[in-house]
## 1
Amino acid sequence: MQTPIRVLVAKPGLDGHDRGAKVIARALRDAGMEVIYTGLRQTPEMIVNAALQEDVQVIGLSILSGAHNAIVPRVLELLREHDMSDVKVILGGIVPDEDAETLKKQGVAAVFQPGASLDAIVQFIRTAVAV
Amino acid sequence: MKTAERQFTSISGVPIEPLYGPDALNGFDPARDLAAPGDFPYTRGIHRDMYRGKLWTMRQFSGFATPEETNRRYHYLLAQGQTGLSVAFDLPTLMGYDADHAMAQGEVGKCGAAISSLEDMEILFRGIPLGDVTVSMTINSPASVLWAMYLAVAEQQGVDWASLSGTLQNDILKEYIAQKEYIFPPRPSMRLVTDTIEFAAQHVPRFNPISISGYHIREAGSTAVQELAFTLRDGLEYVDWALERGMAVDEFAPHLSFFFNAHSDFFEEIAKYRAARKIWATVMRDRYGASSERSLKLRFHAQTAGCSLTWQQPYNNVVRTALQAMAAVLGGAQSLHTNSLDEAYALPSEHAVTIALRTQQVLAYESGVAATPDPLGGSYFLEKLTLETEAAAHRYIRQIDDMGGMIAAIEAGFPQTEIADASYRYQREVEAGERTVVGVNRFQSDDQPIELLQIDEGSARHQEQKLAALRERRDRNRVIKTLDALKRAAEGTENTMPYLVDAVRAYATLGEICDSLRGVFGAYQETTRL
């Protein structure tokens, strides 16, 4: 049997809306992945430390407050500093197309906007980790 | 995606029968279960003439960027015929951080107006006479601090506190349950809420110190029944604390107000509002012996469901919102916020918010639904749904009573888990195509781009500079003295409100005040459950 994919689902910033993060975490778990959920109000430093300790292949960030442009680049920067650039970062939430493009150029593997299907997210992670 | 089969269950999963006739209502007694509008148990509404006497208040929730910009939006909305104001604060404000705090980075002004001090509150209401407009403030954990600032602005305007009317959201229990914007642990938080209830009864008698909210519970993914039951049970918790404080039930209960979601399942929502009034009136009379009619009448604000708005084909959101708003009106709401078509993307643009307000005006002045109270009363289907909703909510309320009340239930993770289960079930149904979301999992087409409101980082810099200048200018000793007095009051059992008013008058900032209280009460961390 294959080792399950390990994913850290994280809620950075002050946003407390965790419905999406929890639904995604359950869906990934039901798809056979090992999911660690950080809980609320994590700083980029806390998230990268958790990713390091839990040895995850994927970090899923959920941000609905519009603070993504301040938070996501910092997570990417810390991953580089820790030589963890192989960890895939995916982002979900209210992220306008323009910001999504910019963040992808900076190293985010995928951005899932409202209405994205759980299945598409599961498939994306499987493919991204297999490469 | 396989083609959806049509489901005959409500959006909350309640089965709907092929037909409702007289036999659906066995045991139903119109005199007892309905009565006339304005009569106990108020199923048909809290006023005899309902909207013939007075239309609902059209109150659009708004706030963004700096207090200067939000103030301009308020003047615009009032000029467009809006009849009340409703303040949205940004996340740092909601969490008790000043705009220049490290945790505020990237968040200043994004989800609402940034208010760090009395100076910002003065700017927010510049040119708006607080004696003439009713103002609702969506603020919870630091509600008493922001209310103190509001009272101080009223004082500067020469308005007597006794003539102020408006509403504080101030419902901390639903923060632990759903929205998760909490600062302190539950018990000290409940003490702060009780302080505001007591202070309102004594000094600001026309103000609603709390708006017990199901809206966020529903947005977090609950069913209609969960929204209703958890909200009413939260209400009972506030009643218990105020009684414990030594207040008489009829002294504060008339000022407890409610806030419900207006979701997409039309009849289920109308039944929810009717059941809410009936349950509240009955419980207040039978459990607490309330005798003032105003203690028994459940008054509520409604907001259309943000979570129902789709990113795809955003213009469809205008239609969703209109139907949801109509359900709220047919359910007897006292005030209403209609969401804007672009809110799945961002805070609304002026153009979008105008359409949302016009939607209410079309309902009020063209549709005819406001011409007679409870126009759907007596419908076999609606009456049956109302009875079922009432019974199901009572079961939850009893279950929480048996757990020892809402704080015990929250500590056990009960409402949180019920909601997470319901939201996951719903998402799975959408995913499987068992539930249709137009434009998302069926009837897809390419989207036309829409113009969005942009909030740049200039707002954050502006707020930081203002705050730095304020910290220089104010009387430091007075700030330290008032904060020390507040800490001593918080450590004891005195009402904290007078101390908060003193501290904000000295221009102590929101962050400084909340830090002082954090020092006394500690900070809350939830146990994470999946």
## 2
Amino acid sequence: MAKDKKMKKDNSQQVSTPPLGIRIVLREIVKDKAALTAFCIVIAILLFCFVGSLFLNKSQVTEINIAESYYAWGENGHIFGTDEGGRDILKLLIMGGRNSIMIGISVTLISMVVGLIVGIFAGYYGGIIDSIIMRIVDFIQIMPNFPILIVLATVIPNYNAYTLVGMISIFGWTSSARYYRSFVLAQRGREYVMASKTSGSSDLQIMFREVLPNISSMIIIDLVLGIAGNIGVETGLSFIGYGLPITTPSLGTLIGYANDPVNVTTRPWLWMPAAILLLIISLSINYVGRALQKAADARQREN
Amino acid sequence: MWKTVLRRLLIMIPQLIVLSIIVFILAKMMPGDPFTGLINPNTDPKEIARLRQAAGLNDPIWVQYFRWVGNLFHGDLGTSYVQHVSVTSLIADRAVNTFWLSLLTVVITYALAIPMGITAGRREGHWQGTLIQIFNYITFAIPGFVVYILGIWLFGYTLGWFPISGSVSGSASGFFPVIWSRFYHMLLPAILAAVISTTGTVQYLRIGILDNRVEDYVRTARSKGVPEKVVFNKHILRNSLLPIAAFFGNTITGLLSGSVIIETVFNYPGMGQLFMDSISQRDYTTLTALILLYGILTLIGNLLSDIIMSIVDPRIRIQ
């Protein structure tokens, strides 16, 4: 009995100290110079949007002043000009960038938590539980999410940023669940899981105390790539007018000015800065995600 | 083989039932009913109430659901609130346009993706491989609508190489000029959509080639003296193409979901544009029919993908 206890202790010391997710992130990013650049760009954009919006007053930014409408680049102190309602595009860009990133992060966090719990349960228990869960996941994944999101946006009463986050998450969690399930499936036959089971740990303990730390770097990758993807979904919806309400600036709404043939050619300042900012955000966040994925893959091969 | 197809069809039945329930719930959440469009100041509210009663709108919800499903089997999708014509004919006109645009997009996607995937797999580590990897990463990262907007701005408005809206120009007459005009109008949206959707295919093909070329059967073929070209085309490539068949269903779903945005940007009169018009005009019967159609088409796309998969790879046939 005493021997058993000792063995368990040794075992847990050996397996349950994987490097913390955040430390891996920093170490891998510093190694890869291109990824480091991308990471710095992400930080710079976050600072630009979040610190910038601290100095802005929402009602002042969205206030309409017809006298100032359609100033071009640099006219009258407006670096990126103004829109139809005389609102400064640079300020809208900062607020819109912040809103779009915030929604991307919120949707990703919700999807990650739900997907992680569902994925761990499906992967750990397998069998009939796994089949039922994966059928549901399959079904939601093949649904044409974009048209359904647009319809939901029109039928939901009191539509706002929070309902938008909830709606996108309904579809978002499925890919996370599938992703985590595959890793848990690979882990559940491992010796450390068996050892923990033999020594009497409950299923919940094994799932969240033993398996979870071992897939922590996967969680970071899912988060980073998920944020980029979900920013794309939100801006896409706002772009065609069914995302954030008009009163809340979004990068998508700004790019949506390009849906008007007159604006596309004669007033590029309305949509071009937002399009370029979104381009840079998507490219840099995805690059960081890819670099992390490569690092994680390489490490898995070593094992 | 046929058993597999049959079993796969049986799986689709519960999916269709769930889909119809979801669409029905969405439809019930939409305000208005078939008589909303008929109301004018002279209408007697009692008359409307009588019509509603006659149409069964006061029946229990499940009775309404089964009646709706029954009508679907007769091809009756209802009458548009706004345009007062049958929804079936309204959608049929637009579906043709979307079908051709999607077909052209799929053709261009594979025409671009398969050579790129093969090159990326064969020239891994060389500059060609690296270049395709970079291109692949960019198309994966950028949201589609940004590409469409920048594309229409550059190639449509600024350079003037392509038409910027519609599906055919008014001045075209005669059979071949009209066909050419239609093709020309679809070309830019199809190319841009294709560029965006190459990502998955290129990646699967590249990884397939990299994985397969170190397999034992390839070494056996080489040591038997099979020419390098035959080894690649017959052994490596054929096996690497398998996952692409599986990805085909995904491509269809992506195109359908994407048609809403691409048809809005290019003002192309297809199903996606009809969908957006129905939303803004609150034409809920058309809207319901369109969501149902989108759902059924994606289910069929998935079915096709599984059937193709079981034809090309006998290993996965369900026992």
